[in-house]
Amino acid sequence: MNENVIAKRYAKGLAAFAQEQGKLKEVLEDLRGLADLLDPERGDISVPELLDFLRSPTVQLAEKIKLTDVICEKLSIGKEVSDFLNVLIKKNRIALIGILERQYERIASELNAECQAVVSTARPLSAGQQEALRAALAAATGKAISLRVEEDKSLIAGVRVRMSDIMLDGSFAARLDKMESMG
What we know:
The protein is of the alpha+beta class. The protein has 2 domains: 3-108, Peroxidase, domain 1 (Orthogonal Bundle), CATH 1.10.520; 114-182, no CATH class. Helix content is 60%, strand content 14%. It is built from 8 helices and 4 strands, in the order H-H-H-H-H-H-E-H-E-E-E-H. The protein has helices at residues 3-21, 24-38, 48-55, 61-74, 79-90, 97-111, 127-141, 172-182, and strands spanning 114-121, 144-151, 159-163, 166-169. The protein has a 4-stranded mixed beta sheet with strand order 2-1-3-4, sandwiched between helices. The longest helix has 19 residues, at 3-21. The protein starts with a helix and ends with a helix.
């Protein structure tokens, strides 16, 4: 079965539970923190050795859970996500944490009647720039916008915005590609 499909099922279950508890946003923040730590695609923030440890068939389940319980306590991860992390470990699905976090974010946004926008930039955006972008996107879509800003050095300059099935590419790299294709 496709990893996205599996991750979406887990994310739906977690989102339904979090919504019942009134903790959609808190769970998202906790999931994001764990994904930053465990997802090797997150770059400098991740600790790939930790994921290797949690995936290792030679490490006892009790040892894995004991370690993640300590990590969750140190990072102030809520019980909902801590318990969920243990389920992922038991089901050998911990490698899906990054995909699952993105799926959960999308589902939580839908439940909150928000539209999630993933913004890729060459350099970090100031709080004022983020708010101006959020306001412009809200005005254009008529929805509340939740921003997720990611740094992408390959863009050179400008921004790329992804919302559901919409991609707005105002990056310098895209402009160069367009000029090159026109040839």
